[in-house]
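Bumping my old thread because nobody answered last time. Still need a sequence for this structure:
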């Protein structure tokens, strides 16, 4: 049975690439929020967004952060990472810049979002524990296949890592 995961990503910048990963079928992900539903949530302000994220994380064992060029700059992605870690969920990242978008363009390699989250106890960065995978391949199809072949094992490893910390 596929693990239930929460996918975190920058919708405007990487929605198309993220949908490729979400639709691989290797994992059971959270349902995508339609543009209209998301606009309704956003109109409720920060508290409504926090509540929506909290609801989406219920029953998930891992958060998979799909990292593009601007992912690290997104307030809610950082919130999702922190909340997931604090709720003792596995957390991992997958770089998706090597996947084509709807116009067949590749993305931009972005900063590691786990560098922006620190442990209160010792000030270490979450990146010292959480893995960020950069899938191999020289074409978008190769990158896609690398992700598809490995994502389930990456999730299992993230859950194991979280259990140890």
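Sorry it took so long. Here it is:
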């Amino acid at each position: 049975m596929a693990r239930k995961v929460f996918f975190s990503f920058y919708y405007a910048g990487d929605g198309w690439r993220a949908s490729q990963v979400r639709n691989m079928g290797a994992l059971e992900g959270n349902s995508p929020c339609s543009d209209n539903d998301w606009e309704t949530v956003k109109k409720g302000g920060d508290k409504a967004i926090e509540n929506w994220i909290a609801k989406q994380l219920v029953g998930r064992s891992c958060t998979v952060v799909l990292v593009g060029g601007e992912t690290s700059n997104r307030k809610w992605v950082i919130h999702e990472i922190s909340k997931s870690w604090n709720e003792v969920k596995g957390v991992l990242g997958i770089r998706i810049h090597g996947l084509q978008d709807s116009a067949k363009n590749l993305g931009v390699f972005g900063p590691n979002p786990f560098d922006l989250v620190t442990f209160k106890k010792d000030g270490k960065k979450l990146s010292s524990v959480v893995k960020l995978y950069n899938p191999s391949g020289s074409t978008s199809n190769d990158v896609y296949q690398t992700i598809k072949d490995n994502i389930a094992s990456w999730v299992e490893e993230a859950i194991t890592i979280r259990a140890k910390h």
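Residues 140-164 form the longest helix (25 residues). Let me know if any region looks off to you.
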